[in-house]
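Human: We require from you a standard protein entry with sequence in single-letter code and fold as tokens, and nothing else.

Assistant:
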Amino acid sequence: MGAAPPLKPSGVVTKSQVPAESEIIDRLREIASHPAARGLRDDAAIWQPPLGRELVLTHDTIARGVHYLPGADPSDIAWKLVATNLSDLAAMGAVPSGILIGLTLDREDGAWLERFAAGLARVLSEYDTALFGGDTVRAGATVLGCTAIGHVERGRALTRIGAQAGDDLYVSGTIGDAGLGLAALRGEAPADRFLERRHRLPMPRLALGQGLFAAGARAAMDVSDGLLIDADRLARASGVAAEIDLALIPLSKQAGLRLGEADSGPDGRLTAATSGDDYELLFAVPPAATSAVVALAGAARTPVTRIGGLSAGRGIRVLGMTGEPLAPGRLGFTHDAPSTGAR
């Protein structure tokens, strides 16, 4: 396939600039080098999972104007499409093997496709994952789907349902960066390259996730819709209650400054804990496993922070900076809420 035609100065996309389905497949065929993909010449992939491993499958969809802003770099869109799915695999302790993608495209042109394909190749190379196949269609809205396929040693997948009363709750990395980065990208706050990158290019915590079961973790999930709402979901799935201490929530230096102070107060920390798009790992650990988890975090080069614990009961309790109970107006993003542009 030749070089994509450049955008006209007016930004108007003509019919000749919109690649046909065959052209899209030809471009993706250059990336699909794994034998399972069979050169994208069949309607299905053939892949043999490693002996003695269980398959872990996940599927997520991202839509223009909901999960990324119109005008976003297509390379970043491809990265986010794949990385958010790999984050689900990380939460279950799985090793990624391949992906299937579904591209419902509106009027994206050849230049868009080239940038998207470059980003797709980059994220797959970064996380040693193959493109197995997928499908494309033209429609009146842009919606991109990805199915990620991984594997885990039999009986050692982490789920949301194994946590117990008395467990500690940990989270990886820092919380709230992506939400603040989105505000900057929308023009609602000053630009900040670090925060914007955290929104555009989530980093699935695969190395950490793959070691959590052996380190003693009992349950895990990734933080996609907000730390508080996802902690509530994990606790409810396990039949216990969660308690989150805002004072313990890890913030990056940039987030702390953006929220008003280096040790942001309760309002800023509530913003961080409810904004979503963090794609960090939230997991439950018995106190006896603390040293093993700390050692794993060091080996995975991923900081982890204890943010609360689990007890008998149901629901979530949020503590303020001095231990006082708070009643947040919202816990995080819900998919039945009206879209506000991107998340």
Summary: The chain has two domains: 23-43+51-153, 168-325. The two ends are 34 Å apart (CA to CA).
